[in-house]
């Protein structure tokens, strides 16, 4: 997508574009690292939103009630 | 085109003339000279249209209508629609309700209905801890593999075992229930028209006595929601028939609601993950769609905003 690299060059920062696109190794590493960081942040964020929508409904919300009772019977 | 060829005879000369004269305004030229048509043509066309429409209507009357083979009583009363929270697109099951519903299943339903497609392990991390489920599985006996002598012995249940059925086979189940087979409940919410609403209405819809005029066969019970209204299962949920460990009042409707949600879980155990994945993918695809719209506009901007100008060559002829 030549268009996006142009946009980065013109509207974001020429210095960033030159460092990013000059060497293929840097470019590829940036793509992989970016994908990793996006996946991580997207999952964390969406899981938080999901849990706030379902507060009190999921097993992890009611689990403590039953763990205490189990530990009193035998320490496992 | 059709009108022109129909009316070709007397008006041929005029048509030729007008065609030759005004080629550009051909759509407007077909004015007064083509407007009049003989009466017999109008009559024939009207009759043909009437005959076609009439025969289509007659055919629909004969073959097109829906056939209702069953009486309303045989269809069963339509279930009332309830606003189930766990059926919304962004809501998981209420796992406390699942736990209560499983208790209702074990203490009430399990004496007749099997749940053969659900293993003990699937409750772990959903409504019970692993220790609770191990203890519950060990209360049941299962066949071992044949030993050295070829004998099959009994062993306590493991997490990987499936919930045992109350009867050895369908024939035993029929014999114990007056000829009626209690259906397996693993997929009952998916397997019944109306789903959660139907099962809830069925469980709570038993009247104290059948209405006047209703015929109930020997050994059957009246339930308006059951197709045919005669059901072998009697009313089983009465207030307080179960004592919930979390202190929820065990009314009939509360137990029915909990067990319906539990049965929906057993039919769709993947629902929580499925909905979460769906919400995530819709969010991602929305972003990708926005990017693709932007890229399209970016690529098309020079094409859409350019102006093509023809500047004729300056030659000697002009």
TrEMBL record, chain A:
Q: State the compartments where it is located.
A: Mitochondrion inner membrane
Per the UniProt record, the source organism is: Penicillium atrosanguineum
- Main function: Component of the ubiquinol-cytochrome c oxidoreductase, a multisubunit transmembrane complex that is part of the mitochondrial electron transport chain which drives oxidative phosphorylation. The complex plays an important role in the uptake of multiple carbon sources present in different host niches.
The UniProt entry's GO biological process terms, in alphabetical order, are: mitochondrial electron transport, ubiquinol to cytochrome c
- Give a Gene Ontology cellular component term annotated to this protein: respiratory chain complex III
Q: Provide the protein name.
A: Complex III subunit 9
TM annotation in the entry: 25-42
Q: Which keywords does this Swiss-Prot/TrEMBL entry list?
A: Electron transport, Membrane, Mitochondrion, Mitochondrion inner membrane, Respiratory chain, Transmembrane, Transmembrane helix, Transport
- Kindly give the PANTHER family that the UniProt entry links to this protein: CYTOCHROME B-C1 COMPLEX SUBUNIT 9, UBIQUINOL-CYTOCHROME C REDUCTASE COMPLEX, SUBUNIT X
Main location group: mitochondrion
Whom does it interact with, and what assembly results? Component of the ubiquinol-cytochrome c oxidoreductase (cytochrome b-c1 complex, complex III, CIII), a multisubunit enzyme composed of 3 respiratory subunits cytochrome b, cytochrome c1 and Rieske protein, 2 core protein subunits, and additional low-molecular weight protein subunits.
Similarity section = Belongs to the UQCR10/QCR9 family.
Q: Which Gene3D superfamilies match?
A: Cytochrome b-c1 complex subunit 9
Does the record's keyword annotation contain Protein biosynthesis? no
Domain of life per record: Eukaryota
TrEMBL record, chain B:
Q: Which residues bind heme c?
A: 109, 112-113, 233
Its signal peptide is none
UniProt lists the family membership as follows: Belongs to the cytochrome c family.
UniProt GO cellular component terms: mitochondrial inner membrane
Species name:
Penicillium atrosanguineum
Obligatory cofactor(s): heme c
Q: Name one GO biological process term.
A: mitochondrial electron transport, ubiquinol to cytochrome c
Q: What is its EC number?
A: 7.1.1.8
Q: How is the cofactor bound?
A: Binds 1 heme c group covalently per subunit.
What keyword terms does UniProt attach to this protein?
Electron transport, Heme, Iron, Membrane, Metal-binding, Mitochondrion, Mitochondrion inner membrane, Respiratory chain, Translocase, Transmembrane, Transmembrane helix, Transport
The chemistry this enzyme catalyses reads:
a quinol + 2 Fe(III)-[cytochrome c](out) = a quinone + 2 Fe(II)-[cytochrome c](out) + 2 H(+)(out)
Q: What is this protein called?
A: quinol--cytochrome-c reductase
Where would you say this protein principally sits, based on its record? Answer: mitochondrion
Q: Where in the cell is it found?
A: Mitochondrion inner membrane
Q: Which GO terms describe its molecular function?
A: heme binding; metal ion binding; quinol-cytochrome-c reductase activity
């Amino acid at each position: 997508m030549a268009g996006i690299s142009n946009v980065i060059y013109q509207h974001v920062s020429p210095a960033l574009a030159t460092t990013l696109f000059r060497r293929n190794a840097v470019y590829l590493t940036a793509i992989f690292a970016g994908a990793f960081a996006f996946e991580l942040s997207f999952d964390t964020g969406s899981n938080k939103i999901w849990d706030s929508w379902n507060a009190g409904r999921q097993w992890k919300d009611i689990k403590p009630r039953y763990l205490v009772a189990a530990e009193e019977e035998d320490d496992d | 085109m059709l009108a022109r060829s129909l009316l070709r005879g007397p008006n041929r000369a005029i048509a030729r003339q007008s065609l030759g004269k005004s080629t550009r305004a051909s759509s407007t030229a077909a004015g007064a000279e083509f407007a009049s048509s003989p009466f017999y043509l109008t009559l024939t066309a009207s009759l043909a249209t009437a005959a076609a429409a009439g025969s289509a209507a007659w055919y629909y009357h004969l073959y097109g209508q829906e056939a209702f083979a069953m009486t309303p009583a045989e269809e069963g009363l339509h279930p009332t629609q309830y606003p189930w929270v766990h059926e919304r697109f962004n809501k998981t099951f209420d796992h406390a309700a699942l736990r209560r519903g499983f208790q209702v299943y074990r203490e009430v339903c399990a004496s007749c209905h099997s749940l053969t497609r659900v293993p003990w392990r699937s409750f772990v991390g959903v409504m019970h801890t692993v220790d609770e489920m191990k203890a519950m599985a060990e209360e049941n006996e299962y066949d071992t593999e044949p030993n050295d002598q070829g004998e099959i012995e009994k062993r306590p249940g493991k997490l990987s075992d499936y919930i045992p059925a109350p009867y050895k086979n369908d024939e035993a189940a029929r014999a114990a229930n007056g000829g009626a087979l209690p259906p397996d409940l693993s997929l009952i919410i998916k397997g019944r028209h109306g789903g959660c609403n139907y099962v809830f209405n069925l469980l709570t819809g038993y009247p104290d006595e059948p209405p006047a005029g209703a015929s109930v066969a020997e050994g059957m019970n009246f339930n308006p929601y059951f197709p045919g209204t005669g059901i072998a299962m009697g009313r089983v949920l009465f207030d307080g028939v179960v004592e919930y460990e979390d202190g929820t009042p065990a009314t009939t409707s509360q137990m029915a609601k909990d067990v319906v949600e539990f049965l929906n879980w057993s039919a769709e155990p993947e629902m929580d993950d499925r909905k979460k994945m769906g919400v995530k993918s819709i969010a991602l695809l929305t972003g990708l769609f926005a990017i693709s719209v932007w890229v399209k506009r970016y690529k098309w901007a020079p094409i859409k905003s350019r102006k093509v100008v023809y500047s004729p060559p300056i030659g000697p002829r002009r």
